[in-house]
Amino acid sequence: MRIKRAVATIFIxxxxxxxxxxxxxxxxxxxxxxxxxxxxxxxxxxxxxxxxMMIPHHQQAIDISDLALTKSADSELLALAKSIxxxxxxxxVKMKAWLDAAGADLDPGHxxxxxxxxxLSDSDIAALKSATGKSFDLLWLxxxxxxxxxAIDMSETIVKITGMTCGHCEGxxxxxxxxxxxxSEVKASATDAQAVITSTGxxxxxxxxxxxxxxxxxxxx
Length: 221
Description:
Number of helices: 7
Mean pLDDT: 78
Radius of gyration: 19 Å
Low-confidence stretches: 1-40, 110-114
Structural class: alpha+beta
Strand content: 5-15%
Shape: elongated
Order of helices and strands: HEEHHHHEHEEHE
């Protein structure tokens, strides 16, 4: 099936990108830290939170892959599901080890499902379980592609800000940046002259700059 083969090829590229990690520096003093598994040594609170989010995200991909291995008859899809299951199982072992070394809990202490991009809902899982044959294969490919797109999109954006001098300044920046679509958490530091934005999708640099300006400050280069 040409269409399915094309989707699978795209999906493999997404998996490779999400497992190898991606990061790039964007304009206006912003750093984008994508889904990366190269952490070592001491972890910041932001890195700990990110790992705590990614472990259940990986686990769902494993569970969905196990479902494919019992329901699909397509050789290409089966090979892909096995690869995802094996690779992400190994990734979870690494991430748990990093959290353990940092003395951090695996459980963040509250539900993060709503801030985790690409997570399939209970109804999505139910639909997969009830589907059969080629319908299952297509639904699985769509669901898993979206799942990994969400993992890539989950990110931290570090914004350098000029003008913050106190806790009140930090609060204004947090309030304005928190209004942006897809933002799940904002931490601002006058001492470090920056804000760290956790989001479930790509953030527009101009929108960030406008939000910082609305708070009374500006993004620095």
